[in-house]
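note to self: the first set is below, dont mix up w the second
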Amino acid sequence: MKKHTLLIFCDMVRGNLLHNINKNIKKSKFDLFLENLGGTLYTNAYTPAPDTGRAYSMLQTGLSCKKNGCDDVWKYPEFFLKEDIEILDEILLKEDIETTYIGTKRNDLSGVFSKKVKNKILIDFKIQTYEKSFLILNEKLKKFDKTFTWICLDDYHVAADDYGASMKSDDVGKEKLFNIFEKLFTVLDKNDFDEIIILSDHGNVHKYGFKDSRILNLLNDDRTKILLYRVTKKNQEFKLNNELRSILDVFPTIIESFELQNRKVCGVSLNQKVTDERIISMESYSEFLHLSPLNLWGCRSKDYFYLTNQNYKKMYQVRSPVDYKEINIDKEEEEKFIKVLKEETVNYEVKEKELKSIERYYEVLNYHYRYSDNSERNQFNKERLKSLKVKRVPYYISVLLSKLTKRGN
């Protein structure tokens, strides 16, 4: 039986800037393309790790970053993925499924794919274009009964690099994506594929979007809500799905598309419904700096979005995929979220211990103290020490600690 699955990875596309998720956004050619292709657009899809390297690691293993070895922003799969994990490519090749990975030389240099990935077609824009690789793919579809193809498209991210993260770059990025999708499906027939999944890895932050304190906005919807779209031969009608979904759900879906036995993974196949109790944990950093620590966390449930750096926190009630109302912290919900963060993230529990240590240090500073000869300290110093009394560690102290402390240690 013939089975062909296509995965198209679109770097940086923001889920909350798609018209069918956010009606405040004008409909682009890219939005229309997805509608005409049919299938399902997921309105509440998230990444636990809003950066490219960690996203690729989850897609290739079905495991969280804490489990797969790519447990930091700059740890890319080629160099840090755990050797003993059987990746998607190995599983498919073992079943005689022809695999193809189409990307650019830049993708390859950054190390987005595991070094165990076999069949890569790398685009060098000086001498070739994507269209040539599409022709090669077309021949493979005719030659092999079962194929899996992964296409990497950087156009949206490149537009953000050119114009800055803005509505201008959003317009340009979507237009460029539409252009390449149109070329792809001129060469290929969408009906040749049993399954097509189109997704992004993270978003970006600019003036449009719901705002938090600056220290938290790198985990809000602008950064963590992704594009996740799926069309199958059995599901050709365009529709929206409001289930809470994760980028981790893609791996088991691909495995099932070839009717293979699923592995023990961290996601839930798109063929299965998720429960209302699902919580997606997130982890990132508060500054775009090399070697910045993972010091920002979030949890998204069906009804709430919780953001924290352990010193400062916010909770939102989810009223729609793009409508959030800030509320007082619900302690019962917060306890659930913190439990998940301790279990699933790399650094939450580590930083919690470090901050408690700082709090103890401040308690010592406030303790009444004399010189060793039992004489009183200078009055100015005593008053100054009283003024240092705090209930929580100031934000600047937590940032300083984060910069001085080696991540994960």
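second set (the one i keep forgetting abt)
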Amino acid sequence: LIACANLVPGITSIYRWEGEVQTEGEVLMIFKTQDGTLDRLMLRLQEIHPYQVPEVVCLASNFTSAPYARWIFAETGEPGA
């Protein structure tokens, strides 16, 4: 489903949950994928994440080099490789 994942430790999240302010240490995860796998990836992340409401956000790229895009498609096993 992904070609690459970046893990960014040391994130502190401050948020409101069930009426109370919470502070948690978290790890930011950035997944490299493409449109053809996005829906399945989003579902899988929601299945395995320990939070009831995980933050799963998709950021579209304005530009991706052709070699990098080919690598993404090749690694995710999708057409376009």
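remember for set 2: Strands lie at 4-17, 20-32.
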